[in-house]
Amino acid sequence: MSLRFTILGPIRVWAGATAVPLDSQRQRAVLATLLLRIGRYVSPDEIAGVLWGTRTPGNASELVRAAAERLSGTLGTHGFDLRATRRGYRLDSGAAHEFDLRATRRGYRLDSGAAHEFDPPATRHGYRLDSGAAHEFDPPATRRDYRLDLGAAHEFDLPAFRCGAARAAEALAAGDGYQAWQGFSAALRLWRGEPAAGLAAGVRERLPVAPLAAERAAALVGLGHAGLALGRYQELTTLLADEAGREPFNEPLNAQLMHAYAELGRNDDALRVFGAIRYRLTSQLGVQLA
Known about the structure:
The structure is a single chain. The strands form two sheets. This protein has a seven-stranded mixed β-sheet. Strands 3-2-1-11 form a four-stranded mixed β-sheet. It is built from ten helices and eleven strands. The chain has 290 residues and is of the alpha/beta class. The longest helix is centred in the last third of the chain and has 21 residues. A hairpin with a 2-residue loop joins strand 2 and strand 3.
């Protein structure tokens, strides 16, 4: 059974229709750190920086390792097998998951199954997650780094959002308003709240979640362009009114909302949006609109 990871809202892992319990804040923070740096090597120090900021404890490496082991134990309840080996632990999945977590001289590494017919030498202090038949060779992990890769068998809402939004943008550029509307709508439905919601405020602030808001805002603007092209003015006013409140300085979004109101003959509403923008820009940024 494939796993589904979500971070565009609360951090969750699903095995089919069953939610995998991530009861520890530290487990969720380690997973979020790797998910937000998907495909990149991440040092234990970087993970520790997310967990504790500048107040990193002296035994941070041990605590990071312990959190990863607890996360492995949690996933183990859904088809994984954690075994002791000469250098630590090895986690082999059952047939349903087709990847395994194996201890290396410097940590843990999670590789997908049958496609990988070569197992590089174990190392000891880093975590790496690889999956998918597309990876025919997996080079050894660096000495102190962690990496998370997810193949086609597993789902992750962030790349799904990015892929959907990119395809919708291509459709919009090609003049296909309908496909753009459908694509942006589907991509935005993957958002279930603030990214990495549920983590402690300090931990979440140290994660690179701020750029995701800009990506979502760009998708909303793309949806607005498609909606205006299709004449879906009523739907746009419903969709964009709340979003404009959350994005008070997003001028394209507010301009689209004003446009939709004007097309519906709701000039008072359009002027109200314009007045609110002018007030915010003047009072908070010192910008005067003509």
